[in-house]
Amino acid sequence: VNPAILSTTGTGIPFSGALTATVLVCFTMTLLMGLYAKLPFSVAPGMGLNAFFAYTLVINGGVPWPVALGITFWAGVVFLLVSATSIREQIALAIPRTLRSATAGGIGLLLTFIGLQNAGFVAANPATMVGVGPLDHRALLTLLGLAISVWLTRRNNPFAYLAGMGAVTAVAWMAGYVTPPSSWLAPPDFSSVFLKADVMGALAWSLAPAIVTVMLTDLFDSLSTFIGVSQAANMLDERGEPRRLRQGLAVDACATLGAAVFGSSAGTAYVESIAGIRMGGRTGMTAVVTALCFLPCLFIAPVAGAIPAFATSAVLILVGVSMFQPVTAIPFDELEIAVPAFATLILIPLT
Q1: Which of 282, 350, 304, 348 is nearest to 19 (CA)?
Q2: Taking the model in full, what pTM does it have?
Q3: Cα separation of 58 and 14, whole Å?
Q4: Which of 18, 138, 324, 347 is the most buried (most CB within 10 A)?
């Protein structure tokens, strides 16, 4: 999805270069998350940040894509400076625990909403904003994937999510809903966007608001991920705070800076990491293995591109269910706590 957004018509970025940059961000920064932060989080270019990069900055703002990469670079530099101090950690720890529980539940609703959209259960509606979509093969195959994953999860099978995704992809290929890859291998593209960021061109005063916007968006995006996932997965220290938060946030800052060098929009810790954590991966070694799994994607891009979006719908729904569980700890009978918690819970999927 990330290279598709970055290379959309009007940006001038080639898909092959954006794909190589995406894999490099995923591999290097997830590896760093495992070796330095020792946390089981995957890192990749953030959804939303890539849309801001492509549509707001490049297409609508008329900023050349090398300069937009430079904006991302400087946002990463500011991000890293903030992360080197205790400021960012203090912001995270100042959030009340009930709001952290609401954040986890809200992200769960968001993931479920994305899964329902990919499956065709939910679609845009001009009268009500959202409504029931055309229930076609995507919905049926999502139910198949859901049944397989739930059945295997109940039996503590660590391949539960992968089996559901694999089964849906195989049926989609055999039924002709998705075209299987014509070739299995393709060489990486290191010539088009790699090391092409215009760092000096991004220092124009008129672009300062864009740098601040990328930095702040990335800041709160990563904070919500670390807090929400740690809360949902019970990865907390003896004080009830997310484990190794400062190290994780430092890696997240490096992911923004590094993404600009590789040729992508800002990188961030991914909330989908909860899927691997739920399957038992709870140490830095999980991130190291995940990083190594990303590396072959430099060469097997055609296969990755032939996996339909609805193949992951069941996993997103199941992860949404697991992340919603911390909401039960919120005392909804105390209005001064319930109102901000509910606002957090519902505004995350709606906005």
Answers
A1: 304
A2: 0.73
A3: 14
A4: 18
